[in-house]
Design goal:
350 residues; alpha/beta; 2 domains; six-stranded mixed β-sheet; 35% helix; elongated; AAA+_ATPase
Length: 350
């Protein structure tokens, strides 16, 4: 649905401020009907990327192809017509305070020249779709943050776009409302088949809704792939930092406070194992104990469903006070590697 072909975006020097290379060597595709998260810190280039998709900015080099059309080559009326197939949801809603919920949703249809009867029918359909049919005549000042965002989503869908851009759409909402809005977007994707691009700095948003993720840092794509793969095998430090914030440490505080770097006589080596797939970790401890001849302890575990796949981590204790001692931990790590499990030694406990 969206392809970036060798894109760069440079903003020229302005009023004594130096030019900025916002995007460099961007080359990836977003599948039709998918939900793709684009994540990065402030200044990573997320806003520039989304403005290239909807034609508000032109790339310095390269092409942006949306639904088979080179939108970066359009201008004037041709660009405006193309933009009707690209909906936009904003962080701070951007509703007109002088218009009711229904009138805000109707605005793009009025601009597109729809007949009044068709507008009324379409607005009623959309307000029902987003769950606020009873707020038809309410003004933005009378709506909660979540209700305002539902109006924004309905407005973005008014002209039946094939692409829906969500620019930090849940950043201004509380966690419970965020979950409800993300569930709504997932339902819209299923029912309408619209391609959704999530621009965000929150990996928890990507985890809940997206199937694919693209990680931006300093204008570069540093990592991309299925969300579950990125969560279980993050390669770039920026991705690892996002994941640490999103899922926290899987270790209970009582365990984490006791871990020391050096082996403790009679203690255990602490090893964290990443697991994927339904039931992937169910028999791992028993299988290791049987094949390695070790008394393996399960110290902690966390399993999530991410991008439609089960992923998580098991924290295992490998006893050191046995023949072979420290070698037991090394044998365990070797066995895990041979069986395609990602694992790391966190330290040791008494």
């Amino acid at each position: 649905m969206v392809r970036f072909d060798c894109i760069s975006k440079t903003y020229p020097a302005y009023r004594g401020k130096p030019g900025v290379n916002a995007l460099r060597d961007i080359d990836f595709a977003i599948a039709r009907g998918s939900i793709t998260g684009v994540i990065g810190r402030s200044g990573a280039g997320k806003s520039s990327l989304v403005r290239l998709i909807n034609g508000l900015e032109k790339p310095t080099t390269g092409r942006v192809v949306v639904d088979g059309r080179d939108i970066s080559a359009f201008a004037g009326r041709e660009l405006r017509l193309a933009q009707r197939s690209i909906g936009m949801i904003f962080q701070h809603f951007n509703l007109l305070s002088s218009r009711t919920a229904a009138d805000n949703v109707a605005l793009p249809l009025e601009i597109a020249g729809w007949a009044k009867a068709d507008i009324r029918a379409r607005v009623a359909e959309l307000l029902d779709l987003v769950g606020i049919a009873d707020k038809h005549d309410r003004y933005p000042s009378e709506l909660s943050g979540g209700q305002k965002q539902r109006v924004g989503i309905a407005r973005a869908l008014a002209t039946r776009p094939s692409v829906l851009l969500s620019d930090e759409a849940t950043s201004a909402l509380d966690p419970q409302t965020t979950r409800a809005i993300l569930d709504l977007l997932a339902n819209i994707n299923r029912e309408l088949g619209v391609t959704i691009v999530l621009i965000t700095h929150e990996m928890s948003v990507v985890r809940q809704l997206a199937k694919e993720v693209v990680v931006l840092d300093a204008g570069h794509v540093v990592e991309s792939g299925h969300v579950a793969d990125i969560f279980t095998h993050p390669k770039h430090p920026i991705t690892q930092s996002f994941l640490a914030e999103a899922i926290g440490d899987s270790l209970p505080v009582s365990l984490a406070s006791r871990i020391v770097p050096e082996p403790v006589a009679g203690g255990q080596a602490v090893i964290r194992v990443q697991v994927r797939g339904a039931g992937a970790g169910d028999t791992l401890v028993a299988r290791m104990a049987r094949e390695l001849g070790l008394d393996v302890s399960l110290l902690a575990a966390r399993i999530d469903e991410i991008g439609g796949r089960h992923v998580g981590s098991l924290v295992l204790g490998i006893p050191l006070g046995i023949p072979g001692g420290e070698g037991a931990a090394s044998r365990t790590l070797t066995w895990l590697s041979q069986h395609q499990f990602s694992a790391e030694r966190l330290g040791h406990v008494a």
